[in-house]
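#lab-general

N.A. 3:47 PM
ok so I finally got the sequence cleaned up, no stray characters, all 646 residues accounted for. can someone with queue access submit it? mine expired

B.Y. 3:52 PM
send it over

N.A. 3:53 PM
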Amino acid sequence: MALNLPQISLSVSIRNSLLTSVFLLLAILAGVSVLATMRLSALQDAVESINRDRLPEIRALADLNVDVAHTHLVAIRAALSTAAEPRAAAEQELRRRTTEVDAKIARFKESIGDDAPMRMAFDQFVNKWDMYQKQQAVMLEPEVGANRDRLERVVNIETPPLFQAVVDAVEHGIRLADHRADSAINSATLDAQIFRWVLWSVNGVSIMIGLATLLFVIHDVSMPIFRITRSMEAIAKGELQTEIPYADHTNELGLMARALAVFRASLVENERLNAATRTLSELSEWLQSAKSEPELYQMISTVLGGLMPECTGALYIYADSRDVLEIAAEWNGSSTTRALHPDDCWSLRRGHVYIHGTSEVEFRCDHVHDGVNENYCCIPILAHGETVGLLHVEYNSTGQETEAEAKARFADRARLGLACAEHLSIAIANVKLREGLRDQSLRDALTGLNNRRYLIETARRELLRAARSRTPVSVVTLDIDHFKSFNDNHGHEAGDTVLRHIGEILKATFADGEMPCRLGGEEFVVLLPNCTIEEAALRAEELRARVEALNISYGDGMLPRVTISVGVAAYPEAGIDLPEILRVADGALYSAKQRGRNRVELASGGMVPPIDEMTSRAVATLDAIVARAETRPIAPADPESGARVA
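B.Y. 4:20 PM
back already:
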């Protein structure tokens, strides 16, 4: 049988298997040869015994049976003959045949020898034959032949039973000889069947040995070599994730598999380093293209998650108050620390990178919870000499690597994190600078509302969208009544306070895609996408009512009541671009001033009457806004630009 020994030398296993198979097959062939010789000799002896002993007896008894029958027929013919010559000829032939039968009986008796069953059967035949001869003599007596009735009685009634007894005795001997021949044949047939089953069993064992040897060669030699070769071809094609089988074996296959695994690990590491280098190069370009901080943080999360798949990481950015760092991006899992104080991290306290898990003297950061692996690093994000954030990377061991391998891989990931931090710091500083400049260019510093530039850019986009979707766009223009006189009487600081309160009311009244803007001075514009002129007029009346109900405290007293005049126009009735629509809305605004101020005028010339219920709701909302405004201190003016800070 084949020896399946995959954990010893493959050459020894193959040699043992083949030698064992050959030895067993030779032993089986030798045994089959001996059995075949013995069985063939036994079959030959059985055939010779049948030919020598049984068949002659059967032939002799058959001849004897035929001669007895002929003798009986001749005796009947002689007895029934009435003429002298035919009777004499029949009697002469009867004597001749009787003599031949007696001679054959004597020869058969000599051939029987010591065969007791056959001798007993033969003695019965001889007795029957003697009785038949006596009856035959009676049948041939002249007196019997002279009496016709007596002759018929002897021939037809008395003689047939005796003749039949002789025939039965002969047939009994024939059956006995046949039975013996059949027994010999059956014994030889049984031996042949047994030998056939032995041969089939031997053939089956031989086939099983051959199949076992073939399976061993296929399973333990051909298939492993084929699988390892296929893995080598796949790795050569760049499929580095291909599984390498038999690496745990101690034979030649295991040596080949482990050598291939080392080669693959080297290729994987080289490929990873090359990919990381390319990714960092591309990352810098992509990060510089980010248009906003959310987009930048999303890009950082995506790239770092793929660049360090075995690491969980988070990016923390300083809040505007500079007293806490809030999580801005995370990858490969959720961080349990959503915000941290600068004193919670050793890297921020010491001012440089802190790698935990590589030194004998080290302490865990306060922001790291107990479930975090000891291998983690914190990297400050520095931009223009200022710390803007923190990069935190936690290494998650797979459990299939040794502690030394985990330390080495973590050190590599820490170096990669340092390289990433350099690119991140520049990108974060640039996007913050761009957003700050953009915010300054698009937002009014005093009221916090969007400015004219933002209105022009947004209106162009919304009008194009409205032209495609055939939806209305309304424009509400407003300014504060008698604002110049208000400044002259109460001072510019009081005027700035009024403007800030108006800005608060505009932001509270319009939201969800509606864009209130300050054009300059006391002039404001609200862009209302997907809003009809009637709906815009109702919103403008709500705004007018809120402003009218506004109570502004300033210094030790209250400022006089403030009112606004409002004009409303809509696309496309008033025009197809912003300047045309503003011109029509300004016309409605001037009409409102001419008609007494503190009112809303539509571009068509109609006036929106005050709405009591709407006014009541506006007053209730305004009370809350005023309460918040009264608790907010008046911001001092910027000494360089003279602008008020909201």
